[in-house]
Write a structure and sequence with these properties.
Distance between the termini: 46 Å
CATH class of the largest domain: Alpha Beta
Number of domains: 2
Family: Belongs to the DEAD box helicase family. CshA subfamily.
CATH architecture of the largest domain: 3-Layer(aba) Sandwich
Subunit structure: Oligomerizes, may be a member of the RNA degradosome.
Subcellular location: Cytoplasm
Strand content: 5-15%
Function: DEAD-box RNA helicase possibly involved in RNA degradation. Unwinds dsRNA in both 5'- and 3'-directions, has RNA-dependent ATPase activity.
Main location: cytoplasm
Bound molecules: adenosine-5'-triphosphate, magnesium ion
Number of helices: 19
Number of strands: 14
Strand order of the largest sheet: 3-4-2-5-6-1-7
Length: 478
Amino acid sequence: MTNFSEFNISESTLRSLKRMGFEEATPIQEGTIKFALEGRDIIGQAQTGTGKTAAFGIPIIEKIDTNNPDIQALIIAPTRELAIQVSEELYKIGYDKRVKILSVYGGQDIGRQIRALKNKPQIIVGTPGRIIDHINRRTLKLEHVQTLVLDEADEMLNMGFIDDINAILEKVPENRQMLLFSATMPPAIRKIATKFMKNPKEVKIKSKEMTVENIEQYFVKTQEREKFDILTRLLDVHQPELAIVFGRTKRRVDELAQALNIRGYLAEGIHGDLSQSKRLSVLRQFKENKIDILVATDVAARGLDISGVSHVYNFDIPQDPESYVHRIGRTGRAGKSGLAVTFVTPREMGYLRIVEETTNKRMTPLRPPTEDEALAGQQKLAIEKLVEVVQANDLKDYRLLATELLEDYDAVDLIAAAIKSFTKEPDDTPVKITEERPLPIRKERSNGRSGGRSVRREHRGSRREGGKKTGERRRGRK
Ligand SMILES: Nc1ncnc2c1ncn2[C@@H]1O[C@H](COP(=O)(O)OP(=O)(O)OP(=O)(O)O)[C@@H](O)[C@H]1O
Ligand SMILES: [Mg+2]
């Protein structure tokens, strides 16, 4: 690995990187920064959580002329959450150089964005729909853009943003540099890329598997109606630091979040029908550990970087292997370890095999924990909490009471009672989870890795979230 100081980058950026704790470049950064600085178009593919944001962010910051008030770089991302996250990372990289960055996305007051645009940002990070909106209002001038980035390019095309992206491309100078990044690059996107790009340099970080090694991957074969109890037992045994549970539909996510709360877990759902402010507040609560479990549709999968996510549960197996890669990639980021469990009904085993074929990695079958094992998991946590209280050494006001109690009761009974009261015992309060129809029966992909696209489109309607309430357009869906 190369230390950032060995790249041809400025002192100010090096200082910012150092403050961020970045010392060595990750492989994708090492493979792309030099070419990006030279002005080459790039198609960059590397596993989830391996620093693709900085791979385009560092050269962009380097190239910004801070004396020039024009918008010099435009980054397009599929969701607002991601647009915000990318702008934050760029802000950090450009901190010492004092680069001005603005994010624009649907759901946020446009007047406020228009005022912020007057403040002459040099980099814009935005979602396609809102960028188009600003172009139409003539509040966003892109004629001096030198670098254009599509983060999660394949997802934006899947979401039907191709017309929007075409329209945006028409507004940026033809001789701009274009950078395309994602962990998955299905052949269709390469084809489109070559249409838009000039002699792109393809940088693919070679690895045996498409998913990172440090994620342990399991599957549980189970009937639909048993999934929820298995999930709660797994949560009890695993005791995740933070977990994401993915569900197939918005209804599923709402029901799961509610059911988890009924059973005593701190969970919140996130999906495209929620208001912008609700989505952001849920995400903030999750980042601040005020909730332990985020229940999400694929909306939360792409690109989000939340430290502390130790476990990912696919309550429903995703319909296409790319989604799987991005979903489980929310854990095991930046070299940390993670664990992913995918639930699969017997009829859906074909999908599991397709995922494995694509990722080139087999999932280990996992036996669902028993109720006793779940209880043992919770008791272990209770003991940890109890010991923490003891170690905090702040029991002065309780010692006398304890001594008095010990005159009447047995010491072991008292401790057992304390553990019991700290233990979240398995709970079978009835919950409502509407059964999802299993995915249509599928045989293994016949033509290897490249056949996913058409299948993905067919079932689009049932999986994807509509953009109606979100102010984002999703065209191109027939
Ligand atoms: N050189 C580095 N040294 C240390 N940490 C890094 C480095 N580069 C990036 N990171 C950190 O690694 C994490 C993952 O980076 P990033 O979000 O860019 O991954 P990604 O490749 O875009 O993943 P995804 O495919 O999920 O979008 C972030 O927290 C980021 O700050
Ligand atoms: Mg990313």
